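Tokens in:
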């Protein structure tokens, strides 16, 4: 039991450090770079990409990332209709294992060989404008029964910082 508590504390600490790093970001692009680099380093997640909803609300985010070399192959733009049909308009993370096929529209042009994924919606203000996507070739990395509290908190930190940078520069 002590080992499980220790592991959980270490995971929470890594998420906490990542959230602190995101809160120090000064640009929209740097928020997403901090997320991606932090998740790669802290959790060795092999596939990370961003999906953004194509509408006027997400325009500041799209403008910041469209010209980014860092996200050239890990950014996808989809219609709100497609995004909401896949996420059921949920704001909390969605974990998918095995049956990834329905979620292919969220993938960037460069497809990944995944068997599980976590979709963490992020927002500007109160409106969801996209998702932070985490993928793995193992079907056991993300399973629907897993607790998503820490991932939800991270997505909330990304949302809050983006909202501050865009609406209250």
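Residues out:
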């Amino acid at each position: 039991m002590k080992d499980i508590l220790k592991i959980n504390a270490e995971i929470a600490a890594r998420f906490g450090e990542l959230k602190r790093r995101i809160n120090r970001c000064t640009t929209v692009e740097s928020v997403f770079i901090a997320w991606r680099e932090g998740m790669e380093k802290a959790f060795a997640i092999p596939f990370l990409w961003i999906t953004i909803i194509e509408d006027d609300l997400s325009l500041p985010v799209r403008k910041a990332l469209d010209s980014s070399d860092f996200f050239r192959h890990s950014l996808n733009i989809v219609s709100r209709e497609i995004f909401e049909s896949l996420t059921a308009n949920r704001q909390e993370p969605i974990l998918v294992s095995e049956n990834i096929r329905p979620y292919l529209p969220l993938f960037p042009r460069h497809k990944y060989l995944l068997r599980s994924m976590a979709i963490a919606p992020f927002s500007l203000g109160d409106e969801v404008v996209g998702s932070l996507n985490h993928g793995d070739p193992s079907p056991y990395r993300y399973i629907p029964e897993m607790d998503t509290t820490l991932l939800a908190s991270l997505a909330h930190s990304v949302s809050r910082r983006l909202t501050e940078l865009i609406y209250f520069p």
